[in-house]
Amino acid sequence: MGDDIVNYRLNAVEDSIGEIKNAIKSIDATLQSLTRLEEKHHATSQSLARAFNGIEDHESRVRQLEAEMPTTRMIKGALITLFTGLVGIIGTMLLERIQ
The pTM is what? Predict the structure, then answer.
């Protein structure tokens, strides 16, 4: 009878150790997955930081262009007026020579 109790308890300990081994394997797999996810998260975070830096660079350039826009429009208008005036003068000179 004493041997039966010892064998019973020994089997119970073996079963418990088997369950502990399975739990440790599960924890190991979960930690490996977590490590991979953390690496992906880190890479994504770095990519976002680079993207936002690029956006900020573009934003500053757009702001600079917006600031220069009135001057550009003024110069463009002056050049169109000058060109139109020159065409008018040349046209008038040509008409006077024809007549």
Answer: 0.49
Strand ranges for 37-96 from DSSP E: none
| Cα distance between residue 62 and residue 67, in whole Å | 9
Give per-residue pLDDT as tens, 70-89. 887 888 888 899 999 999 89
The DSSP symbol for 85 reads H
What Å distances lie between residue 30 and 18, 22, 37, 40, 56, CA to CA?
A: 18, 12, 10, 15, 38
**Token pair belonging to 99:** 């007549």
